[in-house]
Amino acid sequence: MQMVQLRDIYQQEIDENLYLGHVSLKGMFSIYSNLTRLFSCPEINWILRFDELKTEEFREYIERILSTEFRQFTARGKSISNDLLTELMDKMPDKATIVIDSNIRSDYSNPKALRFRSVDYKDARWLKLEDLFSIRNSYIIKLKRTNFDCSDLNEFIHYWSDCEEDMIGQINITLKEETRIDKKEILKNFITICNNKSGSRHAFM
C-alpha cells in the first residue's frame, strides 16, 4: 500500500532527492507515517514552500509538523511576512535547526531569532549587532546577506571571546554587499598567529 501511494504521485529523483506531486495534508502525513514505519530515520528535515500554500494551509502544516520529531525545518519562498515569521519562530522548539530561505523585511525583529540549535538565514539584513550578542548554546549560525561590516565583526569577535557562556560552535557571516574585507580591522586589538600553509591563511587568536 505504501509503495502504491508513492507510485501514484512520483515525479522524479534528482541527486537522491525524491520529488512528488501535490498531495493533501492528510495524504502527506499518511506517507510520512508509512515511511517512518518502514525505514529507520535518524533525522527528519521538513521543507515548506509557503508561496505554494495558502496562509491557513501553511499554519496547518506547521501544527502537524510540530507534532512529529524532526531535526530541521525550512521555510522557502520569495518573501515571508513579519507576522508569519514571528508565528513560526515562536512555535518552533529551541532544539530545531531553522532555515529561512526567503527575503525578510528590514523592520523585522525577534528575540528568539538566534536562539535555536542552528539557524540559516538567506536574508539577515534585519539583524543588528546586539542580536549577535544574544547567541547562546548554538551549533551553527549562517547569515548569508547582512548589513555588517568589518568593524561590526571585530566587535562581535571581542564580545564572543570575552563571553563566559557557551555561545556558538561555528558562525558564517557574509558582510554587507560591496564591503571590502579588511583583515586588520576585523582582528584589531587581537594577538594573532597567521598560518599560510597550503596557500590558505588562518588566524589563531
Task: Tell me the fraction of residues in β-strands, as a range.
Answer: 25-35%
Count of structural domains: 2
- Largest sheet, order of strands side by side? 3-4-5-6-7-8
Output mean pLDDT: 87
CATH architecture assignment of the largest domain:
Alpha-Beta Horseshoe
CA radius of gyration? 20 Å
Count, helices: 7
Give the overall shape: elongated
InterPro entries: F-box_Sdz-33
Organism: Caenorhabditis nigoni
Pfam families: FBA_2
Protein name: Sdz-33 F-box domain-containing protein
Task: Give an overview of the whole structure.
The chain has helices spanning 2-9, 25-38, 55-66, 82-91, 129-133, 150-162, 183-186, and strands at 10-14, 17-20, 45-49, 72-80, 97-104, 118-121, 138-143, 168-173, 193-195, 202-204. It is α/β, with parallel strands linked by helices. It folds into two domains: 1-41, no CATH class; 42-204, Leucine-rich repeat, LRR (right-handed beta-alpha superhelix), CATH 3.80.10. A six-stranded parallel sheet has the order 3-4-5-6-7-8, covered by helices on one side. Strand 4 (72-80), helix 4 and strand 5 (97-104) form a beta-alpha-beta unit.
